[in-house]
TrEMBL record:
Keyword check for Nucleotide-binding: no
Any one GO MF annotation of this record: RNA-directed DNA polymerase activity
Official protein name in the record: Reverse transcriptase
Organism of origin: Gossypium australe
Signal sequence extent: none
PROSITE patterns attached to this UniProt entry: RT_POL (PS50878)
Sorted UniProt keywords: Nucleotidyltransferase, RNA-directed DNA polymerase, Transferase
UniProt-listed CDD domains: RT_nLTR_like (cd01650)
Residues covered by the Reverse transcriptase domain: 627-909
Pfam families given in the database record: DUF4283 (PF14111), RVT_1 (PF00078), zf-CCHC_4 (PF14392), zf-RVT (PF13966)
Length: 1236
């Protein structure tokens, strides 16, 4: 003892202060079980979380106190030697993967001066030669690694263990050792080291405490390293800690607590009561597990409280630790009002506890036995008026001086019992009184919003709180954030939307950016500056040449007189119609004609806000929009635009690798949509027939079918000296390079009024941009060219810009310098096809043709600044083109040659014998969607919607042009007992029939003229023959003729084209006319009409027909001025072809007779089932049960999956559908409890 005191090395002043007796020193030494430690990291450690985590990991029987010493060091005070030794033996310990370096504090050591440089690890030594497993080798290797501590030879050779295990104390400042060369039997070999519970370490330098991203040695090297010296093979296993509140963690001593004296007294009083009760009844609290093993009743029976000799409820007084923590929390947070639930004590005791917590005022509600019990407490100065209360709630109104008004507070406790659930919600709903001020509801709803909130025990399906419409609002918010528009029906999916929103945010986050000089920066301000400079340069105008030559072939199409080509109701002359004052109806039509959940602009509002709240905001919206459109009010303040960058690939850094999206304000988009709706009525007259995008009456499939037909012709052309070529162009930044003056000159040439042109230019010129990077807005800038892709006007204005290229192609054709390509000898010449900025040019495959195309593109660029990326453009030659001509064309144009152009507008251009390879993209897209949408978040009902809205929609586009495969499962109508999935074969046929219908309805379209000239020059489509060497697209469309014939009919005009006996022209009646054709002279419907009086010949009609058919004929109205007969689609009242009705005709035509019987018996049942307002997963379960599709043991036995069919619940019968839902005793008991 005296030697120990001498070793303290204290100076004279300190010796004078520490005049203590030897006996006291001995006692102090025996009670000191302390560790000092630090975490090997530069990151900030959350002290509160760390305390609970480490205490839960260690589980000390006598507890542990953890203090922050500063300088990133912590003191760990244990209260028994066994607790301390168990922690040391369990090293290494980590928190958030950061290594904890520990040292035992000896008597007299300063914890702030102790070197913390060594940590102990269990290390596995692998690849030791057989026969050399010995403790001697373990000691040698241990001393090589650091300081040998222990050799584990107890379980060597067991459980296939083929390594040596030693405990070593290593220096954390040195790199981890990976292997050691040893000599055995005269041969050199290496043994490898694996560290158990290895924490964060650097792959570059091998040191603990950091990774290679923050490695100082790597930064000094100044260059990227392709190969690291260390890897995860050093890690034998990992260990995680659980972060929860710990019952083993001791707080600071009461005497050390700072703060108000009164608070301190309360805490000390609780501590005395609690400690005395624990001392008296300590046998009920297990010191290791931290809870009562014998149960609550054993404590309640013997626990007495000194006030009046009353027995205390174990729900409150029995848990003094909770009482103490509650008061300590109230002292720290100092709330003005507190709501207590499940007090489980009488009102008088609640009141005493409230007063001891320094809350003068309050309302108490008595419990029901040992359940419930509420209390609302508030401090002096809070003005509270009680409205009502019950066993489940306390409802008050607060007159708040801070907000200068009143608001309502409701403390609510919902019963945890399922039988009381509905009553609880109804009681809460009844509290709503319709006041204008705010209402705040809080408490314990005994419900979860999302499945991940459930912690422990049996997992639970997601259920939603049925509280007003707030949860639906939450789901709509996340649905809008994820941009998922397909999930319109089915049960709730907020967890799914959460995951998708998080995934989108991670994917779209921009971490770094490369500047023009090649430097990469991660600073957000530098990234914003780089993006702003890039777009300012891109949107900057360039000097253009005179475009009079280009404009010479653009005709004046906007008339000054009545125009018969305008679609109804547009019958006025064009400019008068365009310049007419706008109306409120047009503003409303524009508002509801936009997608409701499209991305919002600077104002932050989505279109759905205006649509749902139109009855509230319509007056303000109409007033502003009409003042701008009709009176010229300035609208620059609503014409600001955000540019959001969407990554095209992963891990991108260059601005060219992003897809910019322009987000306009909704108010501006409403006005622009109203203008665009008017422009849509006349745009067809202004745009060349080769352009099929955004023009009413034209579809994208027109260009696909045309391109396929021409390329098929080029591929089949093997004879002749003259070859042809198709050049597919890649336009670079087409929308971003549109020059406003060029569009203006085009519109003037087309004949638009000056006032209309000025209105258009105001929309596209007076705009400002700001780039948004990771949610942060950059500085504004103003462009001098560009069309915004989110602007409703942009598509139509870009078509006018593209007319410049069409004009040059028409000029070259008229001058004879460009020949074009024909799909057949008598067919029209086609020089180009356009769909927005997708372009294919056709010409003769010669040096002359290549020079002409090059010159056209050069003139187009000099006039409009539209640029072609020749590196990404390709050329396809007809089979008969000579190799020398091919090389000349490639060199002149500077494009790549392709023997088989893969895709145009997303579909394959050429389909040969290997059709599976051509359409593999469909399977790939489906798999990508399934993987991307994370269907593990979806229930059965949600998967049904997913399949119908996403997976089955993927092949729709392709099946509209090409015949596809058949899917035979679950494709019938829902009322017929199916799930309503599409029969892909029948749906394919219906889509192809639509293409045939367009050939009939639009005979003057470019596609119809090409196909007619090639396949049916002397007949119509319905009577066309397949022909020789037809293309795949024509074979597909031709195969759908039968469906068209069965569904087409006639609307009677003059009747000269309608056969009485062969055509469908009588509504709701079919004529079996073959037996009458030879007996009657009546052949055409015109024979039954009195043309002079415009009425039916009654006697002639009644002669060949039965009475009911004759009555139907006479009911058909005839116009005063008989026009031409019109072909209509009988499946729709409007007479227009719809894929839906054509698909239904196919389903009814191919229905099995057994299905008809089934439909008669079950249609009402299934119709009622699918109309129930229940989650889809429940409806699908009932549907599966009705068809015996559930995996009962009987069904599993029939499929040889299960061996027994006996019900595992009752053991008294076979488990089939009837037994599961009706006859099982367990099921009967459930129905009885549910009162069903």
């Amino acid at each position: 003892m005296e030697n120990g005191l001498a070793g303290l090395s204290l100076d004279e002043e300190e010796d004078a202060v520490l005049q203590i007796q030897a006996k006291q020193v001995e006692e102090r030494r025996e009670e000191t079980f302390r560790l000092v430690g630090c975490f090997l990291t530069a990151s900030v450690i959350n002290f509160s979380t760390m305390k609970n985590t480490m205490a839960n990991l260690w589980n000390p029987v006598r507890g542990v106190n953890i203090r922050d010493l500063g300088e990133k060091r912590y003191l760990f005070q244990f209260y028994h030697r066994m607790d301390l030794e168990r922690v040391l033996k369990g090293c290494p310990w980590t928190f958030n993967n950061h290594l904890l370096v520990l040292h035992v504090i000896q008597w007299g050591e300063d914890p702030l001066r102790i070197p913390l440089i060594k940590a102990s690890f269990w290390i596995q030594i692998h690849d030791i030669p057989t026969g050399f497993y010995s403790e001697n080798l373990a000691i040698q290797l241990g001393n090589f690694l650091g300081e040998f501590m222990e050799y584990d030879g107890s379980s060597l050779g067991k459980e296939n263990r083929n390594y040596m295990r030693i405990r070593v104390k290593i220096d954390v400042r040195r790199p981890l050792k990976k292997r050691k060369q040893i000599l055995c039997y005269g041969r050199l070999s290496y043994v490898k080291f694996r560290y158990e519970r290895l924490s964060l370490f650097c792959f570059f330098c091998g040191r603990l405490g950091h990774n290679d991203l923050f490695c100082d040695a790597k930064m000094l090297l100044g260059m990227e390293v392709a190969e690291m010296g260390w890897d995860l093979s050093l890690r034998a296993q990992s260990r995680r800690a659980v972060t929860t509140s710990s019952v083993w963690l001791r707080e600071e001593e009461i005497g050390q607590t700072r703060g108000n004296t009164e608070d301190k007294t309360i805490i000390e009083d609780d501590a005395r009561v609690g400690n005395s009760q624990m001392a008296k009844h300590g046998k009920f609290i297990d010191p290791v597990l931290g809870f009562n093993l014998e149960g609550r009743k054993a404590w309640e029976k013997q626990l007495e409280i000194g006030e009046g000799g009353e027995k205390a409820s174990a729900g409150w007084r029995g848990r003094m630790l909770e009482v103490r923590r509650l008061r300590y929390m109230l002292r720290l947070q100092n709330p003005q009002m507190v709501f207590f639930m499940e007090m489980k004590i009488c009102r008088s005791r609640m009141e005493r506890i409230r007063h001891r917590c320094r809350y003068v005022n309050g309302i108490e509600v008595d419990p029901e036995g040992t359940r419930r019990g509420l209390c609302l407490a508030w401090k002096q100065g809070v003005n509270v008026t009680l409205h009502q209360f019950s066993k489940r709630h306390i409802n008050v109104v607060i007159d708040d001086d801070e907000v200068k008004g009143k608001w309502r507070f409701t403390g609510f406790y919902r019963s945890p019992y399922e039988r009381d659930k509905n009553n609880s919600w109804e009681e809460l709903r009844s509290l709503y009184t319709g006041e204008r001020f705010s209402w705040f509801v809080c408490g314990d709803f005994n419900e979860i919003m999302y499945g991940f909130e459930k912690k422990g025990r049996v997992p639970r399906d997601e259920r939603r709180m049925e509280l007003n419409l707030e949860i639906d609002k939450d789901e709509r918010y996340w649905e809008q954030r994820t941009r998922i528009n397909w999930l319109r029906y089915g049960d709730k999916n907020t967890a799914f939307f959460h995951s998708q929103a998080s995934s989108r945010r991670r994917k779209n986050m921009i971490q770094k950016m490369q500047s023009d000089n090649g430097q990469v920066t991660e600073n957000i301000q530098d990234i914003k500056n780089i993006a702003r400079a890039y777009f300012r340069n891109l949107f900057g105008t360039e000097e253009r040449e005179c475009c009079n030559y280009l404009l010479s072939k653009i005709k004046r199409c906007i008339t000054e007189e009545d125009n018969q080509f305008l679609m109804a109701p547009y019958t006025k002359e064009d400019n008068q119609f365009l310049m007419a004052p706008y109306t409120k109806e047009e503003i409303r039509e524009a508002t509801f004609g936009m997608g409701p959940t499209k991305a919002s602009g600077e104002d932050g509002f989505l279109v759905i806000f205006y649509q749902q709240c139109w009855h509230i905001v319509k007056d303000e919206v109409n007033s502003f929009c009409l003042q701008v459109l009709n009176k010229g009010r300035d609208f620059k303040q609503v014409n600001s635009t955000h540019i959001v960058l969407i990554p095209k690939i992963a891990n991108l850094t260059n601005m060219k690798q992003f897809r910019p999206i322009s987000l306009c304000n909704v108010i501006y988009k409403i006005m622009a949509k109203a203008i665009a709706n008017r422009l849509r009525g006349v745009i067809k007259k202004c745009i060349d027939a080769a352009q099929s995008a955004f023009v009413p009456g034209r579809l994208i499939t027109d260009n696909i079918l045309l391109a396929y037909e021409i390329l098929h012709t080029l591929k089949q052309k093997r004879m002749g000296r003259k070859g042809f070529m198709a050049v597919k162009l890649d336009m670079s930044k087409a929308y971003d390079r549109v020059e406003w003056n060029f569009v203006k000159e085009i519109m003037i040439r087309m004949g638009f009024a000056n006032g209309w042109i000025e209105t258009i230019l105001e929309c596209i010129i007076f705009i400002s941009y700001s780039v948004v990077i990771n949610g942060f807005k950059g500085e504004n800038f103003w462009p001098s060219r560009d069309l915004r892709q989110g602007d409703p006007l942009s598509p139509f204005l870009f078509l006018m810009c593209g007319e410049g290229l069409s004009s040059l192609m028409r000029l070259a054709m008229s001058e004879g310098s460009l020949k074009g390509v024909k799909a057949s000898r008598s067919g029209p010449k086609i020089s180009h096809l356009l769909f927005a900025d997708d372009c294919i040019l056709f010409s003769d495959a010669s040096s002359r043709g290549a020079i002409v195309l090059k010159e056209i593109l050069k003139k187009y660029r000099s006039s409009s600044e539209q640029s072609v990326n020749f590196d990404k453009s390709t050329v396809f030659f007809s089979t008969n083109t000579l190799e020398i001509e091919r090389n000349l064309v490639i060199n002149i144009l500077g494009v790549r040659s392709s023997n088989n152009p893969k895709r145009y507008l997303g579909l394959p251009n050429m389909v040969g014998r290997k059709k599976k390879e051509s359409f593999q993209i469909l399977k790939d897209k489906m798999k990508q969607r399934i993987d991307h949408w994370s269907t593990r978040h979806l229930s059965q009902g949600r998967k049904e919607i997913f399949i119908k809205s996403i997976l089955q929609a993927i092949p729709t586009y392709m099946m509209a042009c090409i015949h596809w495969c058949e899917w035979r499962k679950l494709y019938d109508l829902k009322e017929n007992g199916s799930l309503g999935f599409r029969n892909m074969c029948q749906f394919n046929t219906a889509l192809l029939a639509k293409q045939g219908w367009r050939l009939i309805v639009y005979p003057d379209s470019l596609l119809a003229r090409v196909l007619k000239a090639k396949y049916f020059p002397n007949s119509d489509f319905l009577n066309a023959q397949l022909g020789n060497l037809p293309s795949l697209t024509w074979r597909s469309i031709w195969a759908a003729k039968g469906l068209l014939r069965s569904g087409m009919g006639w609307r009677v005009g003059r009747g000269t084209e309608i056969s009485v006996w062969d055509d469908h022209w009588i509504p709701g009646k079919e004529i079996n006319g073959w037996e009458h054709q030879t007996e009657n002279e009546v052949k055409l419907v015109a024979d039954l009409i009195d043309a002079e009086n415009n009425e039916w010949k009654t006697e002639l009609v009644e002669r060949p027909f039965t009475a009911d058919i004759a009555e139907k004929v006479l009911q058909i109205p005839l116009a005063k001025n008989l026009g031409a007969d019109i072909q209509i689609w009988r499946g729709e009242l409007s007479g227009d072809f719809l894929v839906r009705s054509a698909y239904k005709i196919l389903q009814n035509a191919r229905m099995d007779p057994n299905d008809l019987l089934l439909q008669t018996d079950t249609k009402k049942f299934y119709k009622k089932l699918w109309n129930l307002k229940l989650p889809s997963k429940l409806l699908i379960t009932v549907w599966r049960a009705s068809w015996n599709y559930l995996p009962t043991l009987v069904n599993l036995r029939s499929k040889r999956i299960a061996t027994s069919m006996v019900c595992p619940r009752c053991g008294s019968g076979e488990e089939d559908i009837g037994h599961v839902f009706r006859f099982c005793p367990a099921t009967k008991e459930i129905w009885h409890l549910l009162k069903l």
